[in-house]
Design brief:
Arc Repressor Mutant, subunit A, three-stranded antiparallel β-sheet, 5 strands, two-stranded antiparallel sheet, mainly alpha
């Protein structure tokens, strides 16, 4: 049942019609936002409340009869956190493998390759390439050239 409430919130928000957050000819004023007005409708607010409760983002204090945010508690489920870490690790490994493959394709006998060539080959920007190389234990960048780190055995 927990997931039905969660998905109901997402399904409901996806049905929002085209609305102005700021009209093109006007200055932005939050109180005039059609989007805010729609999002604050009772049906959307009820779904948001149920979602927050089902995810343990808010809790009920039966002594006071009040609700409160679970700010001091670890509300991120451990399994979800582990899955995110695994997904990030897989993404990192894939990026490193793509870097290694591009280097191998462009390098002649393992000689350095112009970083721009690898960026073009991978269809990524220079800063993304530099970020990938900085996280790599196989490559370094010097003077715009990427070279494979030689391992002494």
């Amino acid at each position: 049942m927990k997931y039905k409430k969660e998905y109901k919130f997402f399904r409901l928000v996806r049905t929002m019609p085209e609305l102005y957050h700021k009209k093109p000819s006007e200055k932005y004023v939050p109180e005039k936002s059609e989007v805010f007005r729609w999002l604050s409708s009772p049906e959307v607010i009820e779904c948001l409340f149920q979602f927050a409760y089902s995810q343990k983002l808010i809790k009920y204090n039966s002594d006071t009869g009040k609700w409160y945010g679970a700010k001091d508690e670890n509300v991120i489920p451990k399994k979800w956190e582990e899955e995110v870490q695994k997904a990030n690790q897989r993404r990192h490994e894939k990026a490193q493998q793509e870097l290694a493959n591009a280097f191998d394709q462009l390098s002649t006998n393992g000689l350095p390759v112009i970083s721009q060539q690898i960026a073009i080959s991978l269809n990524i920007g220079r800063s993304t390439l530099y970020n990938r190389v900085s996280k790599s234990d196989q490559f370094i960048i010097e003077n715009g050239m990427i070279e494979k780190i030689k391992r002494s055995e």
